[in-house]
What we know:
Layout: H1 2-18, H2 22-50, H3 58-76, H4 80-84, H5 86-91, H6 94-98, H7 105-112, H8 119-136, H9 142-168, H10 170-173, H11 180-189, H12 199-206, H13 216-223, H14 234-259
Helix pairs in contact: 1-7, 2-8, 3-8, 3-9, 3-13, 9-14, 13-14
Amino acid sequence: MKHLSTVCFIARLYIRSRLEYRAALILMWVAQAFGYASGYASIWLILTRFDRLGGWTWPEIAMQLGFHLLAYSLGASFSFVQMRNLEDVIRLGTFDTLLLKPVGPWAYLVFSGLNIGYGGHVILGFGFIIWSYVQIGLSAGPAMIVFLVAATISSAALVAAIMTTIGACALLWGRSRYLYSIFFGFWQLARYPLNIFSQPLQAIMLTVMPLAFLSYVPVATMLGKDVPILGTAAGPLTLAAGPIAVLAAVLHWRHCINQYQGGGG
Length: 265
């Protein structure tokens, strides 16, 4: 509990420093929202011409896009900038000092750099989900709401776990930032229904780089659509993907910490 109160205090300090320039922060949120909205407009234009994409209508794909953006922003706020900058922290020798702090280095890195710059992502993601939910006419029963919340948490945990795993590689190799280009390549593909891709790529996005669980699998489960390869196991695996990825990330992080020999190798 003492360590928890410490990291919460660190996070509050960082958030307060970011809120010193509220106007700039809000403008950044608005700019981000418009940037993503313009990108999604191209998908909407395709669907106005062809009506469906892989059997998915625009409201259904809008729900996937909203889920994709919301889960990513929640997970990335705890991991992306912090883990992307880890190689610089190692190179400058700053990481060695973190090993002497009373809180773990991962907790300190994450909460001292908690990114609240994803406000635009969250607002746009929520907006897409609510609009599509109404357009599709899904039931708003307790079971559906619980699944939606649990799937969002699992998807966000999946993102944070993958980014932590990538960042931790810098403890072994000195660099890891270039690996994020691979992540974002698959992240872009995860915006679209999985069934439009070839089966080998579907398998990769469900296992090696499991970003299909970011939005496609949970949304397809809610809509009652067939999920390639997974079938009826899609629902339970949606909720298990995040915790499994977190466990793998924890083991990888500990291994990298144990093998770490300093910025000089």
